[in-house]
Structure formats: structure tokens, C-alpha cells
Automatic annotation (TrEMBL):
GO terms for cellular component: nucleus. Its EC number is 6.5.1.4. PROSITE patterns: RTC. Residues 127-228 form the RNA 3'-terminal phosphate cyclase insert domain. ATP binds at residues 47, 237-241. It comes from Carlito syrichta. The lineage of its organism: Eukaryota, Metazoa, Chordata, Craniata, Vertebrata. It holds the Pfam family RTC_insert. Gene3D superfamilies: RNA 3'-terminal phosphate cyclase domain (3.65.10.20), RNA 3'-terminal phosphate cyclase, insert domain (3.30.360.20). This is RNA 3'-terminal phosphate cyclase.
Length: 309
């Protein structure tokens, strides 16, 4: 996909290969289609293409096909409800239109992403978590799965959250995905907590054969609660997705996180190698964080400028 976005040369990109050689050229805007032909995640396609098309010569329209709610990747609901509003703080906007939802193992989902290029990215500062003001979400079923599964996931998640957070109304909507907007069968849940300073945290889980609906709901609730305990301003899954934007931005970015994930350490390693950005990771010195495993990731971005604008 990236080869096509920038008229590049790509060698060794086949199954069984242990080495690839990629030579990019000028990043082109316009309409591009990428199809995993499996339940491979459309959100991972977006993750890799977004930093490129931001520095394209013209606006882009990306037709991404595969799984929208798949394991080992962000659910598209996370991408739209958590990643999007936070990443837009770097000074750009994008639109993500979910045409069709797709699940493991069939895939068949499609999202259309539209975005315009920018001259430069602004640095961000996400260090003030604030207090939780709202908790909401959606529990979904698609295809042949009964609606009761969505209701059970939602109810179990609400019960799980109430154990720790009693003073907030928890609004998790059970949803039956319309037949014409979902391919195949699937179920899952995403729960989002919003804070007074605009920080967003999520917990999510997907239904699997042989796993009862209550457990799926409880797993999502547990994940959300764990992400609210560490005192960071981003959840564990947003950390690594912000690194490349911090590296490319013009100036110093800072984010406060819980324990730094291996994904984040890897992203920092490559951003430093490839972009020559400088990162520091330090334990938070804030007295409120003294008892918690909280860190500040700081980056001196390289201030990439779009040559086409």
C-alpha cells in the first residue's frame, strides 16, 4: 500500500521472505485502495498510511478493506472514538466513513478515509488527565448472533465498572449491526471514559466461539479500569500510535502514560533511527503519581515540512 502511495520500489515483499528493500518516491494524494483479502485490520492499514498522506501533494481518499473489528488490532470504533480526536490535536483532520463492518475470519469490511495534507504537524502536550466525567460505549452483534448477546455484554460491563466507579452513569448501548452494513458474524464491545480535560481511555473485547458474553463484557470493563488506575493521560493502546506523530511534529511533545509498552519502546526505537527524533522516557515526578507506575514520554520532533505545500 505504501509503495503505491508513493510510487516506490519494493522488493522481497512476499510470504517467506526475510528481508525487504523499499525505496520511496514522491508521496501522491488521490484515491487509493488496499485490500487485505482477509480479516486483516483496516485500522493497521490506516495507521501505516496516515503519516505518509499527511505529507502528500494533494488530498487523499483511502479505501481500506479487511477486518474492522478484529483481534490484535484496534477496533474501528477505537480508531474513530479515541485515536481520531486525540491525533487531530497534532493539527489536522480526517474523516472515516465505515461502509461495511468485517470480522474474523471472513473480513469483507471497508472504510473510506479522507484527509488533506498539512504543511507541518504541531507538537502536543497530553499530561493533565483531569477527572473522569463520562463513561459510554457500544456492545454489538452482527450476522446470526442473537441480540441478547449484546445486551448481556453491556450489562456485565456496567456491573464490572460499578464495582469501582459508583457515581457516574454508565451508558453502554447494545447494537444489532444492520444487515447491509456488516459482513459475516461477529460480536464485541468497546467502553470509553472521557475526562474533564478531554482525555479518552478505552477498554474493549471481541466475542469468540465458546466464550460467554458476560466474560467479554467483564474483560472490556477490566481493561478500562486498569487504564484509569495508572494516572496516565493516554491508555496503553494509544501510547505507541502517537509516537510517529510526535517524531514528525515541529517542537517538543509530551505525553503522560502508564507503564510503557513494548510496542511503544519499539516505535521509539525506529522513530529515533529513521527520523532522528530524540525521545526521553522518565518516571513522572508529579506527587499525585508517586504511588503509581506513571511516565512522561517527551520528544523533540524533527519538524518535517511538506515540500508540496
Amino acid at each position: 500500500m505504501i509503495r503505491d502511495l508513493c510510487d516506490g520500489q519494493l522488493e522481497g515483499a512476499e510470504i517467506g521472505s526475510t528481508e525487504i528493500t523499499f525505496t520511496p518516491e514522491k508521496i501522491r494524494g488521490g484515491v487509493h485502495t488496499a485490500d487485505t483479502k482477509t480479516a486483516g485490520s483496516v485500522c493497521l492499514l490506516l495507521q501505516v498510511s496516515m503519516p505518509c498522506v499527511l505529507f502528500a501533494a494533494a488530498p487523499s481518499e483511502l479505501h481500506l478493506k479487511g477486518g474492522t473489528n478484529a483481534e490484535m488490532a484496534p477496533q474501528v470504533d477505537y480508531t474513530v472514538m479515541v485515536f481520531k480526536p486525540i491525533v487531530e490535536k497534532f493539527g489536522f483532520k480526517f474523516n472515516c466513513d465505515i461502509k461495511m463492518r468485517g470480522y474474523y475470519p471472513k473480513g469483507g469490511g471497508e472504510v473510506v478515509v479522507r484527509m488533506s495534507p498539512v504543511k507541518q504537524l504541531n507538537p502536543i502536550n497530553l499530561t493533565d488527565r483531569g477527572s473522569v466525567t463520562k463513561i459510554y460505549g457500544r456492545a454489538f452483534v452482527a450476522g446470526v448472533l442473537p441480540f441478547k448477546v449484546a445486551k448481556d455484554m453491556a450489562a456485565a460491563a456496567v456491573r464490572g465498572i460499578r464495582k469501582e466507579i459508583r457515581d457516574l452513569y454508565v451508558n453502554i448501548q447494545p447494537v444489532q449491526e444492520p444487515r447491509d452494513q456488516a459482513f459475516g458474524n461477529g460480536s464485541g464491545i468497546i467502553i470509553i471514559a472521557e475526562t474533564s480535560t478531554g482525555c479518552l481511555f478505552a477498554g474493549s473485547s471481541l466475542g469468540k466461539r465458546g466464550v460467554n458474553a458476560d466474560k467479554v463484557g467483564i474483560d472490556a470493563a477490566e481493561m478500562l479500569l486498569a487504564n484509569l488506575r495508572h494516572g496516565g493521560a493516554v491508555d496503553e493502546y494509544l501510547q505507541d500510535q502517537l509516537i510517529i506523530f510526535m517524531a514528525l511534529a515541529n517542537g517538543v511533545s509530551r505525553i503522560k502514560t502508564g507503564p510503557v509498552t513494548l510496542h511503544t519502546k519499539t516505535a521509539i526505537h525506529f522513530a529515533e533511527q529513521l527520523a532522528k527524533a530524540k525521545f526521553t522516557v522518565k518516571k513522572s515526578e508529579d506527587e499525585d503519581d508517586a504511588s503509581k507506575d506513571t511516565y512522561i514520554i517527551e520528544c523533540q520532533g524533527i519538524g518535517v515540512t511538506n515540500p508540496h505545500l
